[in-house]
Amino acid sequence: MAETEYEIVIGMEIHAELRTASKMFCGCPVVDTTVAEPNTAVCPVCGGLPGAMPVVNKLAVEQAMLVGLALNCQINASTSFARKNYFYPDLPKGYQISQYDDPIATNGWIDVQTEDGGNVRIGIRRAHMEEDTAKSFHYSAGGARGGAYTLIDFNRSGVPLLEIVSEPDMHSVAAAYAYGTKIREILRYLGVNSGDMEKGVLRFEANVSIRPRGTEALGTRTEIKNLNSFRALVRASEYEIARQIEVVEAGGTVVQETLGWDEARGVTVSQRSKEHAHDYRYFPEPDLPPLTIDGAWIEEVRQALPELPDAKYARFVGVYGLVENDARILVEDQALASYFEAAARSYGGNAASVSKWIVGELAYLMNRDGVALEAVRVTPESIASLVKLVDAGTVSLSSAKDVLATMFETGRAPEVIVKDNGLVQISDEEALSQIADQVLSDHPDEVVAFLGGRESLLQWFMGQVMRATRGRAQPQTVLGLLRGKLEARRR
Asked: Which domain holds residue 375?
């Protein structure tokens, strides 16, 4: 079969650390494991010492409920914890406290739009709470300690973790990318996760299979673990799809297994045979009673839901009249969306003009210098003032770009920069008429060529006037004057 004769089937598991001050079952602080001294935020509970008793973090439960509501899930009235038994060096108890039969949220969905413009509804099977494991650091032979070894940092052990499990509703890598992007966006809007994949607070796992197009039965799936970037998600999924097709085409059988992604070599590598639920020997956590969630608590959490990305996008297009691409760019980052709204309120006019400057020139300067929005010196009010100067004809478009660059570097107000640099646009027709006459008188050969049919020279004359006025001439006024004077010479 050709590749086009197979249907891709992808389901995803997303592991998101919840943004709480303390861990899931103890009072240890949640620290940034990329900078904190190893093994300094550990106690008998998260260190797995015998007899240590866990206590559920209420805020983590509420954040899990918040995510469930944002994903259109049912919040279950009774939820319980279970012991998931498996043995790794980073799991000192020999089990992980998780949820199995009674997850906190089930049966949800989100809509995503792929890069090719397709709309896909993806089911959310469940979202359940658990504790994160410790962090392993593997060193190859020949290191400072002589041979191959592993070090364990227990600072991450016990950090609240929410696992979001999708249905296998994605049939392209583009859909999986869009889904991962949307979940990350929602988590950041809710304030429950920073979305910083480089720090490991958000991790993807892709379950990939193929089947002959037109069939219903699912093929054998492989699970690609711990993908910590969108690039890794895309490359690993694409590689695994191609690998499975190659295996099937050669007459082989895809083996159900857990895979890792080797970024350097660009290949998936086998880690172990894929476990089933019975392999983990789930049983109810004896140290934690079932948790009852009544309707009043759910409604209290529901009231904390912010305006989510889809609703904000619809409002930006419908109320502010933004083009879809600008609205989509602004909505991707909640802070940028808030910046735009503050600028739009200050401007008080055509908000689309403001959005163009933010997603265009301001974004360019931020990307050029690697400056995050919170460090930008240009306030929403000052960029609104600059747009007002442009729309009023006080300053030309080209000059305004230079003004914004100066604002970006210094934080100065646009009005001050325009005044200090003599950038006020000349719109006085009498003054501009005299300058246009002088340009035409100084270039008789070009005038003859224009009258002979080289009408492109009109823009050249325009440039001469702009040069004479140091870019301060009002373009439309100049263009009209030049046309009239040249036509007069034709007659």
From this structure: 309-420
